[in-house]
């Protein structure tokens, strides 16, 4: 029986190790890349090794036409609440670990604030416009936004972005650099910010406060987003 693309992926996963020396042809490398893409799409489920094996079995059964072990119409609707619960669990574990790092402070809102470089200037108020460089990542390390990559700082009113920024950046001084670990409830919450930020995502920002005041500008991209 001829296998579909997912079947080819499963053969690649079982017949090849994740070793560049064994990926000899362009087709093998492309199939492996497809496996990477699928793996990243399920990373939000925070799967254990045993659970990952169940995912592989489900993919293989679907790709080869084997009889499914469960009814997809019955259990498919459970995927969204499972993803939500797993995302929250992974975020909580990350926050707990981050709070124990040297120099980290847990704020009443749950934000983990860590100074990387002390500033010497003034601290902004919530009503101020700030000029910053920043990098935002998911807890997996996936970068979803960066003013560095755009090649220019961002400038926006501090009370017009996510609550994590409004609270955290006020603790900084001009010239300083800090890390903010933002619980979902003070970031993008249940809605997330599709397609880059999933629902209930804990986020990590590294922020350099370059200045306060000025004319300001619209937020250059959706992240950090204005409050809705």
Architecture overview:
With 228 residues, the protein is an alpha+beta fold. The protein is 35% helix and 19% strand. Strands 1, 2, 3, 4, 5, 6 and 7 form a 7-stranded antiparallel sheet that branches. Helix 1 crosses helix 2 (26-41). The longest helix is centred in the middle third of the chain and has 21 residues, at 79-99.
Keywords:
single chain, 228 residues, alpha+beta, 7-stranded antiparallel β-sheet, 7 helices, 35% helix, 19% strand, elongated, disordered N terminus
What is the gist of this entry?
This protein is 35% helix and 19% strand. The chain is α+β, with helices and mostly antiparallel strands.
Span between termini: 52 Å
Choose one word for the global shape: elongated
Strand content: 15-25%
What integer is the average pLDDT?
A: 86
Structural class: alpha+beta
| Radius of gyration from CA coordinates | 22 Å
Instruction: Output the helix-strand order.
Output: HHHHHEEEEHEHEE
Q: How many helical elements?
A: 7
The major beta sheet can be summarized as: 7 strands, antiparallel
| Percent in helix | 25-40%
**Unreliable runs, pLDDT <50, ≥5 residues?**
1-20, 215-223
Structure summary, number of beta strands: 7
List the helices and strands and how they pair.
Blueprint: H1 5-15, H2 26-41, H3 49-64, H4 72-75, H5 79-99, E1 104-106, E2 112-117, E3 129-138, E4 143-146, H6 147-150, E5 154-157, H7 163-169, E6 177-182, E7 203-212
Antiparallel strand pairs: 1-2, 2-6, 3-4, 3-5, 3-7, 6-7
């Amino acid at each position: 029986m001829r296998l579909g693309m997912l079947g080819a992926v499963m053969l690649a996963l079982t017949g090849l190790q994740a070793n560049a020396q064994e990926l000899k042809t362009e087709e093998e490398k492309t199939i492996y890349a497809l496996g990477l893409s699928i793996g990243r799409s399920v990373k939000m489920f925070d799967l254990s090794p045993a659970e990952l094996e169940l995912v592989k079995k489900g993919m293989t059964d679907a790709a080869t036409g084997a009889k499914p072990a469960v009814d997809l119409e019955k259990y498919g609707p459970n995927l969204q609440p499972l993803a939500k619960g797993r995302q929250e669990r992974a975020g909580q574990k990350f926050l707990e670990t981050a709070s124990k790092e040297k120099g980290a402070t847990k704020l009443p809102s749950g934000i983990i604030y860590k100074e990387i470089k002390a500033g010497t200037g003034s601290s902004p108020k919530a009503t101020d416009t700030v000029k910053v460089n920043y990098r935002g990542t998911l807890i997996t390390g996936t970068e979803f936004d960066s003013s560095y990559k755009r090649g220019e700082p961002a400038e926006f009113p501090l009370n017009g972005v996510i609550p994590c920024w409004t609270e955290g950046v006020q603790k900084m001084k001009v010239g300083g650099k800090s890390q903010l670990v933002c619980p979902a409830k003070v970031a993008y919450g249940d809605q997330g910010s599709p397609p880059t930020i999933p629902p209930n995502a804990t986020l990590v920002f590294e922020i350099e406060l370059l200045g306060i005041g000025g004319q300001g500008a619209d937020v250059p991209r959706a992240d950090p987003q204005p409050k809705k």
